[in-house]
Hints:
single chain, seven-stranded mixed β-sheet, five-stranded mixed β-sheet
Amino acid sequence: MDIKxxxxxxxxxxxxxxxxxxxxxxxxxxxxxHQLKLLEEELGVKLFERGPRHVQLTDSGKILMNRAHQxxxxxxxxxxxxxxxxxxxxxxxxxxxxxxxxxxxxNERMSEFHKQYDNIKFEIFEGNTFTLIDLLNKGIIEVGIxxxxxxxxxxxxxxxxxxxxxxxxxxxxNWKSNNMTLSIRELKNKPLIIYRRFEQLICDTCMExxxxxxxxxKCDDARTALLWANAGTGIAIIPKSAFELAANSNLVIKExxxxxxxxxxxxIWVKDRYISPLAANFIKSFGIV
Length: 289
């Protein structure tokens, strides 16, 4: 089994047809079918169920597809490492970011980094913190820009300064309009829109103040929370730096006075794994301490 065979196998799995895969690979169908046969004979398993027009992965094929993606990503990482040594600070940097990383924080840092290294290209992956951790472990990205809390056991981390949680309140729901802060107790009986991953933290904090929060909506994205709040459906609890991510013409923000409802942005990368000069310089220039 070699890398070329794995690429052939993945093309067939993705296209669902040997003919379509051959066309995608710019090769004739018979050699492709022959390579698939050799791979199945070597592994001693059937990778596809053949139909009249389509092929479908077997259970063994599904396992190989998952591993093949990881092997090819690792191969690409090795190629990048070798090229980094000869090319210096050139190439493409793959990073992941959460939506709540804050437009100002990211834009300013990325702009400054681009001025210093204008020959570098970027590949950006977006998702929640848990998605980015999975991409880091698989080697698809080198650096993740994530938000606490998360399990940092297997990662090197550099943190930005702590920031408070805020509430984004529809104007028609606003109370104490002149106050720019509020206490936890003031959220009692209010319809809350929260991050699913902050649910336990918010619930525990509210319970410590003698009430269970009324959670109207749970979501996984700062923009979603803000859009729902902007529509007047409830009060969003989000990190302060996430507020500028959406059109918020109908919202008033107030900082929550709580030592527990705080969070940080962090740059993380996998411990004891090669990190390219591109990624190392990005982390250094990102301004996280």
